[in-house]
Amino acid sequence: MVDYEEIIQGLLRARAGQQAVSAERVYFTKTDRGVDPKRENPFKYWPGTVPVLLSVPYSVRYLKNRKIMKSAEFTGSLGYLTGEMSGCHVLAVSKFYRGDPESDFPCIYKSFMGEICRKNQINLVLNLQGLTRDSQFDVDLAVISMVSKGEKVVKVLVRSLEGCGLTGLAINQLRPEPGSVAHFVSSDLGLTVVQVRVNRKYRVPNQNHHGFCRALAALVTGIKDLK
């Protein structure tokens, strides 16, 4: 039986929050100055050992309807540490490239994702995004169809999230927009995809170290249980 509190305490002792702050500074460029993706790779990919890909599309700023949008703060470093500790593959946007991974078509982010999935025989994609602090939920889980593997994945994640004290959960059926990551993964790649949106109060390790470690522990133990 998993001792969630022991895992959380271990992350606290290891100062996982400080590791996240460092990773955010090193890997994720927070600027309005865009890079040319033909000259500079705007993505960061960390290979894993298990056939699960954690996608983090909004780890830096992005362009939507010609407006520069804010990043989902610390989703990048949360994804990075989850990959380090669980063995899953991680793909995140690391530099502002004047695109929107969730709506562009064609899309260089999703094309790169497809290459990763095919080369590594990925069978599940978790699409990590953020919720605002004033959301009534700690975590929102959404899957395209609550049957078969998608339903099983959600059950495993719910068990880990609740075990780590994140009890304000929303479980929804995802209706992916054409061009979105979820639509691409399910329709083009034929894989199961679950959207995981984490409340900002669990994504501020410099303000809520304990909460961040709870969210990290939940993702790590959940992915390990999915193996």
Structure explained in plain terms:
The protein has 227 residues and is of the alpha/beta class. The protein has one domain (4-226): Zn-dependent exopeptidases (Aminopeptidase, 3-Layer(aba) Sandwich). Helix content is 39%, strand content 20%. It has seven helices and nine strands. Strand 3 and strand 4 (67-69) form a beta hairpin.
Residue share in β-strands: 15-25%
CATH topology group:
Aminopeptidase
CATH superfamily: Zn-dependent exopeptidases
Main-sheet strand order equals 1-5-2-6-9-7-8
Helix coverage percent: 25-40%
Estimated structural class: alpha/beta
Secondary structure layout:
Blueprint: H1 4-13, H2 16-27, E1 43-46, E2 52-56, E3 62-64, E4 67-69, H3 75-86, E5 89-93, H4 108-120, E6 124-131, E7 139-143, H5 148-163, E8 169-173, H6 181-188, E9 192-199, H7 209-226
Parallel strand pairs: 2-5, 2-6, 6-9, 7-8
Antiparallel strand pairs: 1-5, 3-4, 7-9
